[in-house]
Amino acid sequence: MLQSKSFVKKTKQGKVVKVVREHYLRDDIYCGAPFCKVCDVAAARLGSSASTIIIADTNVVLHQIDLLENPAIDDVVVLSVVLEEVKNKNLSVYNRLRALCSNPQRRFFVFSNEYHKDTYVKIESGETPNDRNDRAIRVAAQWYQNHLGGAVKVLLITNDRENKKKAIQDGIPAETVESYVKSLGQPALLDVIVQPPSEDVTMEDAEDLRPSKRKTIYPEHKPMSEIISGLHRGIYHQGKLRVNRYNPFEAYVGVKVLEMKLLSTGAQT
Ligand SMILES: [Zn+2]
């Protein structure tokens, strides 16, 4: 099956040319589950007795790669739409994810949802690329659910409230990172979760950091990926902002590691 997209563009020399992009859709992309009755299972990488197959959205991969690298997390389907988004946002996380996918000790399977005839989705009019990609993730999760029947639970992990809500409406089980990790009953894993920079923001409220969904109150000082890697490397420290109730222009940030309080004065409007 062939999907083609054509558009007209002007060259540097001022000529107007028609560009046709062809996107081939295939029906021989397999699901990666060794117990599947339909697919070729020679290249299957998921566990033969997996009870849950995890599909993580892009932001979960970008922020929780430490968690994904933990051996407690396995039987993960990495969608090609997620892989592409991660590649464009953070090459270091992308390389770590690819390493997981090629590690024979781990059960991470890359599913080319963007090339599968049943999971490719076209962008709808008025839809942002991010919303289209979130929909592609939900469509792929639903495909897995229908494809594998009741043999296994397919779980979408997302901290994007809207994505989670829509998934549940579509009948796809969906959980936040925190609630999924809590359900595993391994408290030590909770320490591996990267919390959003402000302690006042719960995981449920974590912002979607991709451009069109960003709700900017103040401009960011640093990109989120840099902040997270800086926190890990000990370059940055995280603390709770406590504003003086009598003077809103004075605030403290308590930083445990440094055993000190940082005084901040002034305000930004
Ligand atoms: Zn299959």
UniProtKB/TrEMBL annotation:
Occurrences of domain PIN (ranges): 52-165
One GO term of the biological process aspect: rRNA catabolic process
Gene3D superfamilies listed in its UniProt record: 2.40.50.690, 5'-nuclease (3.40.50.1010)
InterPro entries: NA-bd_OB-fold, PIN-like_dom_sf, PIN_dom, RNR_Ribonuclease
Name of one Pfam family that matches: PIN_4
SUPFAM superfamilies per UniProt: Nucleic acid-binding proteins, PIN domain-like
Keywords (A to Z) from UniProt: Exonuclease, Hydrolase, Nuclease
Keyword match Manganese: no
GO terms for MF: 3'-5'-RNA exonuclease activity; endonuclease activity
A Gene Ontology cellular-component term: nuclear exosome (RNase complex)
Transmembrane segments: none
PANTHER family: EXOSOME COMPLEX EXONUCLEASE RRP44, RIBONUCLEASE
Protein name, per record: Exosome complex exonuclease RRP44A
